[in-house]
Amino acid sequence: MTPASTTLVTDALNWRYATKKFDASKRIPADTWSALEKALVLSPSTMGLQPWKFVVVQDAAVRKRLSAASWGQSQPVDCSHFVVFAGRKGLDTTDIERHLARTAEVRGTTRESLTGFAEMLHGGTEKSRKAGVLDFWMAHQVYIALGMFITAASVLGIDTCPMEGFEPAQYNEILGLSAMGYGALCACAAGYRAGDDKYATLPKVRFRPKDVIVHV
Amino acid sequence: MTPASTTLVTDALNWRYATKKFDASKRIPADTWSALEKALVLSPSTMGLQPWKFVVVQDAAVRKRLSAASWGQSQPVDCSHFVVFAGRKGLDTTDIERHLARTAEVRGTTRESLTGFAEMLHGGTEKSRKAGVLDFWMAHQVYIALGMFITAASVLGIDTCPMEGFEPAQYNEILGLSAMGYGALCACAAGYRAGDDKYATLPKVRFRPKDVIVHV
Questions:
Q1: Which one of A44, A103, B3, B97 has the fewest beta carbons within 10 angstroms of its own beta carbon?
Q2: A94–chain B Cβ distance below 8 A for any pair
Q3: How do strand A159-163 and strand B52-57 relate by DSSP bridges?
Q4: CB-based contact (8 Å) between B89 and chain A?
Q5: Cα end-to-end span (Å), chain A
Q6: Best mutation site among B37, B40, B59, B140 for testing chain A: the one with the most A CBs within 10 Å?
Q7: Interchain pair A53, B164: CB under 8 A
Q8: Is 0.95 topped by the overall pTM?
Q9: Residues A17-196, CATH architecture
Q10: Which CATH superfamily is domain B6-212 in?
Q11: What are A167-212's pLDDT values in tens digits?
């Protein structure tokens, strides 16, 4: 693994901003998009549960409906690739067993040999379910994937706009997510900034490092 | 901005894994660490609120206590840099006004000119507070920063171990987070894998792309 330079990473993160206006004529090349889908798939999650679906929307009519469900924002329509990040609702034994089966398959072992891990998965999620916070916990994981996606994109020179400004219930209905047991949490438009997006040149608003980073 | 190659990004994300055993003798160089702190500071968040504190723990005695509060896991002690990700609890008018003041300062404008934005911030957070989900919403943002940190680190050749396996109440007490109005959500150890970490060579367990990515 040949690492990138610190300059490349810092430049990329300073270069990125929440793109409000995409150049609708530009498309992300297939190999770059493939790398971004890999970043989604490779995102880490609590106990490896991957409680998510990433919906990549290319259909123009569906994109138009998503834009309408996002207070008319243009990013869902104008970007190159639009991804809806959905989290598992009511994660249950089926999900856990699916994860255990996949673990056994990938690692060339048996479900029986994973009993300790299985107990951890069942016990941990059951405790959260009883406390009424299981869906929130799983939702946290989905945002790790969002952070990975934004970062990978910026390092690859791809603009993004992470979005929470939409009606989740409408997104769920349009994409059939509820029926799958998932719920839209956030979305990310990806592509190329329009030459005249006035937000591109606004100074980035961040608190001073000393106000967010505490050294102990 | 000169982007990285897709190969570099994909290789980095395949190379990374949740490092269980760090080489305690190796330290992340200052310029690399500085880039990682910048990644934290530059993380995006809903409406730019940055509802977080990132606690970088270098004190050996504190690290030992955090390890004890993490069921004895060794990463907090053996890694080069240990970061605790804390989210704002009960975000209120003070936070919003601090963000507005910073926005006015960075963009060279006045608080008065930001009235529309202020209404959006107050209205949006008030709605969540009433629904009892404000802290969860803010917590989501913290996980974006975790995803950014992990990705930036891997691209820079730095190993990480994201962790939720600890007693948040103990972390909060050890780091004085509750008094600051924040709560520990997750942590991330960063550094270099030990040569004999057996987890380094285990095949990565992920569902097949078709099971997590939906194309519409």
A1: B97
A2: no
A3: unpaired
A4: no
A5: 32
A6: B140
A7: no
A8: yes
A9: 3-Layer(aba) Sandwich (3.40)
A10: NADH Oxidase (3.40.109.10)
A11: 999 999 999 999 999 999 999 999 999 999 999 999 999 999 999 9
